[in-house]
Design a protein that fits this description.
About 20% of the residues lie in helices and about 35% in strands. The strands form 5 sheets. It has a 6-stranded antiparallel β-barrel with strand order 1-2-3-6-5-4. Strands 8-9-10-13-12-11 form a 6-stranded antiparallel β-barrel. The chain contains 11 helices and 27 strands. Strand 8 and strand 9 form a beta hairpin. It has 3 domains: about 230 residues, Thrombin, subunit H; about 90 residues, PDZ domain (Pdz3 Domain, Roll), CATH 2.30.42; about 90 residues, Pdz3 Domain (Roll).
């Protein structure tokens, strides 16, 4: 008897399907490895750590000569029982307490940018310092000299002479960073040298109201006091930012830190190295944030861009035909998501460059070419943000646009600046200043525009009080706002 066995063709479909799935899993794991953190950062830390330094400074300050003077600057205010306890002499006409000079030290971080000893750090780390010392990862110490400082971006360049080639970092491109990318910070938080923390990019383009030009990278990599001036790295070991600030209610890290984008820092560094100062581009516009209501009024689909409230006479913006009420939504091909992005972009543009702006005027998009000028110290910054001089007083103001004038039922030729926000519990709220008030005078000097407001307010803050003349619902009223 012959047994027959059926010979069939193999079923290749499951095999092919399994192969595709396997290939997908392999590629996915490789992609995750490329964009996520490696299993260990030890090799990266070994490579980058030597370029991170500890910066500590010494500053001479004046302090009271005796303990009780820390509490009472005026001798007349010292209680009798306090005098007896500290054997304080009787007051002599209420004069200020005598002072003595003392040394105060502060800690920060820095990053070596070239083998010949140039180091980037924050301006606030070395500002007012009498002496700056740098400690390398090998614990060698060198005195540093300041090459240049730029308070407006909080960047400083210092240099040491070590007599040998030093390890330096490679710069990345902060424009290419994406929210969710992994980053690593190395620094000296609270004086603990060479501390490494890891997190992700939480947001980009942040403004925290501390500097004139802000385009911060937000990260949840732990940053604490002492990390200031230290580097933020991507997972390829390239520097993408300078750690500079934290948001904290208790002084420690809560997962909200801010870094200056490396593209901005390198631009400032190169100018400080070659010229000892920073020159910036100037557009000559006063801008404000586009709210949801304003977006609808100006024909925008969503709140985006920088709304121009005022044009400086003779500025590049005026020569290019830009007008108040225009909304800048693109600058050299980059979308202006938030108002604060524009000043930094303009400032970093080389003088004389022809910049392309996309604006929205009367609900229609238009491309305008403008030749960027040079910002002078007496000029307002290119794209100055609204109300920055009013925050200390508890108010935020903006330029009076035709749309705002119409909303507030004002005459077409009315001059002044509009109060758009009053901080709850502030002195401004206490004296009766309200949102929607039009400031038409400060200390009896007329306010025609934002330039007048900034100029007069700066001078007015030297006194004890500021006299405001407000226009509210067709009626004027004077208000005295204490500054001290």
């Amino acid at each position: 008897m012959v047994c027959a066995t059926r010979i069939t063709k193999p079923n290749i479909i499951p095999s092919v399907f399994g192969l595709v799935i396997s290939l997908f899993l392999v590629l996915s794991s490789r992609a995750a490895a490329a964009y996520g953190p490696p299993d260990s950062l030890a090799d990266l830390v070994d490579k980058l750590g030597p370029a991170v330094v500890n910066v500590y400074t010494t500053e001479t300050v004046k302090a009271p000569t005796t303990p009780y003077h820390y509490f009472f600057q005026d001798q007349q205010e010292i209680p009798e029982f306090f005098r007896r306890f500290f054997d304080v002499p009787p007051p002599r006409g209420g004069k200020q307490a005598p002072e003595r000079e003392m040394k105060r030290t502060s800690l920060g971080s820095g990053i070596i940018t070239s083998s010949d000893g140039y180091i980037l750090t924050n301006n606030h780390v070395v500002e007012n310092a009498d002496k700056i010392n740098v400690r390398l990862s090998t614990f060698e110490e060198h005195e540093a000299k300041v090459i240049g400082r730029d308070p407006k971006t909080d960047v400083a360049l210092i240099k040491i002479d070590s007599g040998k080639a030093l390890p330096a970092v490679a710069f990345g491109d902060s424009e290419q960073l994406r929210v969710g990318d992994w980053v690593m910070a190395i620094g000296n938080p609270f004086g603990f040298e060479q501390t490494v923390t890891v997190g992700i990019v939480s947001a980009k383009g942040r403004s925290i109201g501390s500097e004139t030009y802000e385009d911060f990278i937000q990260t949840d990599a732990s940053i604490n006091p002492g990390n200031s001036g230290g580097p933020l790295f991507d997972m390829n070991g390239r520097m993408v930012g300078i750690n500079t600030a934290i948001f904290s209610r208790g002084g420690g890290n809560i997962g909200i830190g801010f870094a200056i984008p490396v593209n901005m820092a390198v631009n400032v560094m190169n100018q400080l190295k070659t010229k000892g100062k920073v020159t910036r581009g100037w557009l000559g516009v006063m801008i404000q944030q586009v709210t949801s209501d304003l977006a609808h009024s100006f024909g925008l689909e969503r709140p985006i861009g920088a709304l121009i409230g005022e044009i400086t006479p003779g500025s590049p913006a005026q020569e290019a035909g830009i007008k108040p009420g225009d909304v800048i939504i693109e600058y050299n091909g980059k979308t202006i998501e938030q108002m604060n992005m524009l000043p930094a972009m303009v400032a970093q543009t080389p003088i004389g460059t022809k910049a392309s702006l996309v604006i929205v005027r009367d609900g229609k998009q238009k491309t305008v070419t403008v030749t960027i000028g040079e910002l002078k110290e007496e000029q307002q910054a290119a794209g100055t943000k609204e109300g920055e001089s009013g925050h200390a007083l508890g108010i935020t103001v903006q330029a009076l646009t035709p749309e705002l004038a119409d909303t507030l039922s004002l005459k077409k030729d009315q001059k002044g600046v509009v109060v758009v926000d009053v901080e709850q519990g502030s002195r401004a709220e206490e004296v009766g200043i309200r949102r929607g008030d039009l400031i038409i005078e400060l200390n009896r000097q007329p306010i025609a525009n934002m330039n007048d407001y900034y100029r007069i307010l700066e001078k007015a803050k030297e006194g004890k009080n500021i006299l405001f003349l407000l226009l509210r619902e067709s009626h004027t009223r004077f208000v005295v706002l204490p500054t001290k």
